[in-house]
Amino acid sequence: MNPVATLAVICARPDGLVLPLECAAQQDLQEPWELLVVNWGFGEQNELLNALWKKLRPDVPLRHVPLLPPHPARGRYYSWDMGISFNTAWANATGDIFVMIEDFWGFQASWLRSHVESVRQYPNDWIMGKIHTMPL
């Protein structure tokens, strides 16, 4: 059986998972969901992340999907590269409802549940939720 929702975090920075993972660990959705981290495959960091996530949320599976590194001439992702990231997340999600966020946003504990409830109530609509930017 598929999870009700996939929460995908798109991460283009090795330190970019701190804020969204803190927020993901606090989600109050009481139905099965999964966390999908789409990043460049930061190796050892992913292993540490797996261990931490199992302590924080042993009830929620975590999967990593690697991205190809950005083109060397550019040195970082641009908007068209982020489109590739979004499509990669979408293609690898197993949840019935797909919710995605980038690595520099924070969100409330009710965020994922609110998305699930909204999609169920308005299945033909595009749903967006309130997010908080990372402090500068």
What does the secondary structure layout of this molecule look like, with pairings?
Blueprint: E1 5-10, H1 18-25, E2 33-39, H2 44-56, E3 62-66, H3 79-92, E4 97-102, E5 105-106, H4 111-121, E6 132-133
Parallel strand pairs: 1-2, 1-4, 2-3
Antiparallel strand pairs: 5-6
Description of the molecule:
The chain has 136 residues and is of the alpha/beta class. The protein contains four helices and six strands; from the N terminus they run βαβαβαββαβ. The chain has helices at residues 18-25, 44-56, 79-92, 111-121; strands spanning 5-10, 33-39, 62-66, 97-102, 105-106, 132-133. A four-stranded parallel beta sheet has the order 3-2-1-4, with helices on both faces. Strands 5-6 form a two-stranded antiparallel sheet. Strand 1 (5-10), helix 1 (18-25) and strand 2 form a beta-alpha-beta unit. The model has no long low-confidence stretch (mean pLDDT 82).
